[in-house]
Each structure stands twice: as structure tokens, then as C-alpha cells.
Amino acid sequence: MPYVSGKTMIQEAWNSGYAIGAFTAHNLETIKAVLLAAEEEQSPIMIQIGQKAINEIGMMPLRNAVDSLIQHHQITVPICIHLDHSRKFEQCMEAATRDFQSLMFDGSALPFEDNIRITQAVVEVAHALGLGAEGEIGKIGGTEDDITVDEKDAMITTVEEALDFSERTGVDYLAVSIGTAHGVYKTTPELKFDRLSEIKAAVKKPVVLHGGSGVPDEQVVESIKRGVAKINVDTELRQSFINAVQGHWKENESDYVLADVMNTGIASMKEVVQQKIRLFGSNGKAK
Ligand SMILES: [Zn+2]
Question: Which end of the chain is more exposed for a tag (fewer CB within 10 A), N or C?
Fold first, then answer.
């Protein structure tokens, strides 16, 4: 299996000035779309398994599906399975013992000291097992899975808290709030580039951009120049999949061949993943 620790994968990207796409998988079809796109682009990628999909399908069925599809499609590029936005220490431990290569504990809704304490415990286990660990400081707005952070509650991460959090937890890569949001943007986002540069200069670690869907390309490229090495993409992938399926059904009202209908979604989503990979500069980096 071509699995690589998130720590190694993100560090390499950061050192070389590109970003790893962390693409959210929801079912067999979306896992297939991500894997085929990565192979075609010869790109290392992360497949994110998030809370909504875990609630609906279960951690192990999804994790095993990645294994099976890698084998079936003879995928050779480096793959990292990442646990996205876990709010439970126990769930992080479950993923750690079930061959995930990267863990995110999200304690951003907790008091600062509690966030540090639990993240630090997750990091310790992750490092003992050779996995990558992500933490989040500052609140990213929008809706992810079943959790909504109101725009007025979203907070831009300060340099001081980023540095304190990073040093005390030992995370390998750090999710910060610099003006992106989860879900669909109501207005075009404007990333706080100065803050990103300040955080990078202080923390000296790869930064993770959440809410990557709908951020204008030139802002994505600028953020990579300023230290972002992991970009989470979910909403745009779901949109492309669902829009393609809807379009197909509009034109072929009596097509009940499920595989054919789903294939339109897979093809559309695969194309978007490939575009993102090229935008992030990770194409051809599989070695
Ligand atoms: Zn996120």
C-alpha cells in the first residue's frame, strides 16, 4: 500500500513550495474520484474522512474502502488517510490504531488550555506511531459536518496564540483562521495574507487552510507562497458531483442504471480534484 505519514508528506510539500490537497471522501464513488485523479496527476494526496461520513457510514467501512480501491485501481502515488475535525480524543485514538496516517484533533471550540492539553495528548500518540498530527487554533467560520460557527464568532488567529499553541502541543501542521470559511461563501473571501506571513515567520511550521472551496485561485497560490502546505477541499467536490448527477438526470429522466448515473458524478469530481492538484502544484510530485 502506498501509504505515507502525513508528517512526511506535508513537510516535503512545505520544503518544496507546493501544497497537498486534502480531499474529503464521503463514499465509494468519491474515494474513487480522488484516487484516480491523484494517479493521473502523479500527485501525493490526502484523503480526509470527516465526521459526517463517519456518522453515516462508519470509520472502518470508509477506511477499508480506501484500501480496497487502492488495490483494485493499482494506485501507486503516495496516499495519506487523514481524520478530519475530530472533537473526541477517543476517536483520534481509534483512528491511530486503525492505520490512519494523519490525525486532526479540533479543540478550537474549547477553552484555550483544554485545546492545548488534548491536542498535546493526541500529538504524543501520533508521534509514537509515526503519524502526522494537526491542531486548530482560532475559529474557522461556516458549517462543517454538523457544526456551525457563526460569522461573528469566527476569529482570526493571532500570532501569539498560534506560537503558544504550536510550541506547547508539538503539532506537525497548524490549522489557522485567516478569513476562509467552511461551506459555500456568500461573498468572495479575502484572506489575511499579512497575518499568514506573520504566523509562518513565528511558528515555522506548515499551515493548513480549511474552507479551500471557492477561494479564488490567485489567493490560493499566494497562500502557498506564504506557508500553506495543506489545503482542505470538500464543498466544491460535492457540488461538482451532485451537479453532474442532477444534470444527467434532467436529460435522462428514465436512466435508473445507478452505476451510469454515479459515473457522471465521479467523472465531474475527478476533474475538479485534478484542477486543484495542478493549482496546488503537487502534480508530478509523486516521485
Ligand atoms: Zn475544516
Answer: C
